[in-house]
C-alpha cells in the first residue's frame, strides 16, 4: 500500500452506553484512534425506511493494519458516519485492512 494514496483522516469510534441526567441509558461514541485512509465510493441506492426514503452509499476504505477496526465500530469522516460492515486483513499479512462500509443519508 502506498502512503500517498491514503489522503483522508478517519476516526475509528466505538459505542458505549452511559446514563443521562435522568438516569436513562444514552448511547455515546468515543474515538479509539484516528488514522490515514483511502476512501472510494462503490455504489449508491435508496431504500424505503419507515415513512421516508434513505440513501445508502457503500465505500471501500483502505488503511494500514489496525486492531481497533471491527464491524462493531464505525468510522467518522468529517461529518459522514460510515458503519463498518466487514474488515478484511489483506493476505492475512497484518499490513493493511480493507473495510466495506455503509453510509446512510436521510
Blueprint of the fold:
Layout (H helix, E strand, L loop, with lengths): L7 E12 L5 E25 L2 E13 L9 E4 L2 E10 L6 E10 L1
Antiparallel strand pairs: 1-2, 1-4, 2-3, 3-6, 4-5, 5-6
Folded structure, characterized:
The chain is mostly beta strands and 106 residues long. It has a single domain, classed as Bacteriophage SPP1 head-tail adaptor protein (Thrombin, subunit H, Beta Barrel), CATH 2.40.10. Helix content is 0%, strand content 70%. The protein is built from no helices and six strands. The chain has strands at residues 8-19, 25-49, 52-64, 74-77, 80-89, 96-105. It has a six-stranded antiparallel barrel.
Mean pLDDT: 91
What count of helical segments does DSSP give? 0
Percent range for β-strand residues? over 45%
Across the major sheet, the strand order is 1-2-3-6-5-4
Q: Roughly how many Å is the radius of gyration?
A: 15 Å
Quick one: overall form?
globular
Biggest sheet, open or closed, and with what strands and sense?
Answer: 6 strands, antiparallel, barrel
**Euclidean distance between termini CA atoms:** 34 Å
CATH class: Mainly Beta
CATH domain fold name: Thrombin, subunit H
Classify the secondary structure makeup into a structural class.
mainly beta
Strand tally is: 6
Assembly status = single chain
Q: Low-confidence spans: pLDDT under 50, at least 5 residues? A: none
CATH-scheme architecture: Beta Barrel
| Helix content bin | under 10%
What is the count of distinct domains? Answer: 1
Order of helices and strands: EEEEEE
The CATH superfamily appears as Bacteriophage SPP1 head-tail adaptor protein
